[in-house]
Model the fold of this input.
Amino acid sequence: MSPLVPGLGGLIKGSPVPRDNDSAWLLDVHRRGIPGADTMARYHDHDEVDMVIVGAGAGGGTLAQRLARRGWRIVVLESGPFWDPDRDWVSDEAGQHQIYWTAPRVIGGTDPVQLGKNNSGHGVGGSMIHYAGYTPRFHPSDFHTRSQDGVGADWPIAYEELRPHYERVERELPVAGQDWPWGDPHAYPHAAHPVSGAAEVAREGARRAGITMRVGPVGITNGVFGNRPHCIYRGFCLQACKVNAKASPFVTHLPDAIAHGVEIRADSHVTRVEFDGAGRCTGVVYMHDGVEHHQRAAAVVVAGYSIETPRLLLNSAGPRFPDGLANEHDQVGRYVMVQGAPQVAGRFAQTMHQYKAPPPEISSEDFYETDPERDFARGFTIQTVGPLPIGWAEHVLADGHWGHPLREYMRDYAHWTTLGLLCELLPQPENRVTLAQETDAHGMPVAHMSYSQCENDRANIAYGKRVLEHIWEAAEAQDTLTIDRYAHLVGGCRMGTSPETSVVDSDHRAWGIPNLFVCDGSVMPTQGSANPALTIMALASRLADRLGDKRVGEARAATAGAHV
Amino acid sequence: MAHSFQTGEHLPHNRPEGDPPDPQGLPRQRAGVTPQMHGRFPDFDVMAHREHWDPVTRRTLEERVAQVPACRFFDEREQRTLGAFLDVVLAQDSEPRIPVLQMVDKKMADGKLDGYRFDDMPPDPETWKRVARHLDGFAERSDAEQHEVVRRFSGGELDWDDLNVSRAWSVVMRGALSEFYSHPWAFNEIGFRGPAYPRGYMRRNMGPTGVDPDEPQEAFGLDPVRDLQQRSA
Done:
């Protein structure tokens, strides 16, 4: 189906097609839903499938596609709906409330993290339905910040183990951008998109300030790619791409997964993982239309992201695992991370209408690595963002305005352009997800997320904001407005080398439970200052290779010295 | 009054008192509706482009304008208090007003919440109720008194025993702004072209050469009579 070019060595922009993934060819040019959904495989609850995956997002979707290609029988249970974008999505900021996780959650700590539309997806495709579209790789240094910089943690795997999967996923999305000089230098399969006037002003300011910015990297088609349409630059990336130009598992992996026998069972909220007497999982319990069901499976993969994954592991406590699954050493839910994501907007004489472009346009990783000249470890990334009116109103409010001043800044929207940061905030054990007293509509305790910044975090954010202000000064902005906020979520079930300090091993397997895996952003021990989507997919791709090749060894016990 | 939007002198940060010029000096809206009928883009009406939108989006926006449900969540006393409060924080001092109170009421009544609450706060609907209770009598106060109460509320300077004031400000303002700036009348006022599917955009560069056909054109804000006099002087 996909026209592979034999002997194609290096990357020729726009030409490469992905290996073993026909998703883009399985879509319909004139409809946005997944055509194969109508004839999708259906399994019975009492069928023991090879694998049940909880969550149809970046991790679960990619893993399902890879293993289905190897003949695994897989059911993916997704709490939210199975979208038909033509029918369900609107080109409107407020009208897209449905794509976020809006069930109750409780937040605390000294610096609470707002959830919902900021970082939590709901429905088939997961949070990549609403992510901006930036798809940078992590730097090699991200995998050993403890040894190198004395902060964070070392991963049990190195960058080199993910590199082939980064390359493969970049072709699948496909990623468009200039050649990338930072981290492990690399090129992208699609050329950089044209840049809007709003981003051009930011780029000129950065140039004058001595900062390098490049166009991309974004998971947005820029050329011929199967039946995926070209981007129309309408600026609604964060409200779900009704065009199908922006990559998400919905268009990049699930069509192929479904064509290879995967069932995506939507509106199915998993409440517990089930066990036999020997401590192996036997499947999951889930709620569908208010009725409890059980899906049997030979292996269970939890891919619900940094809040729902720990919540499910904790809520699955029973006689054998009184503190929750893989939690003998109180590690589940800890080391949850978000990135510091303040934004500073600059005002210019001419109008530029910053909504007339995808928010992700240009970025800089000049400040990514630890610099001994600065008073903190690790660093940050600079990226364009493009707030729509409600986002812009929150920005103006955060700068301290209400009433007439707020209305005046809002009327001035056409003159502004906005830069944001992603600051690498450090993993801390007390930043964690626990179960609250309150329960949700299914009777399941809701998640409580506690978050507090450390000194290094505050210094990083403060320095980054000064850099943004410096860029706007260099660009000769007439005024600036600032908002402090967070972006993204990772960690909470981190991978490591021992059950005392982690939840899963380097094969994503829960310590002490041979057939339970976690495959989402929660396994990340550190977050870098890169948007996490591409790395979550690359991790899932690597795990699929290891499971498919039967390279995942015998389980090790949760308690050192014991045998399973 | 004559002002140009090029210089940025109209912006609160660039003015000694931090207050913008009186919006009554802005052009009157000629096409469509803006809240209070003043705006920077007097000939721009986002709804005039509805035929270019996909049917689901068109229905969503048409209903947002046409269907203003009566309040079911706030009682009459709360409506009076919160209505007056919302008029001040959103500077809606005359008709036509975007019916933000009714829009917030609908969201609270339908339980369409944002997916989180602070652990020292009640759920958002209860926060709104408590704010209404603490602001009771707001509607009867003078303009200056109302302004002072809101100033103290925004700065976290009020002392409420059962509410964290800064967080309550964040909850109600987030709620109010999400409704106000979802309304097509507000799009008209700020020159936002709204839905852009399946149409997309043609030109994206800065300034006059980046203007798309049908793009909102900013008024210069010049008084034509005085402008003519100055030029012929």
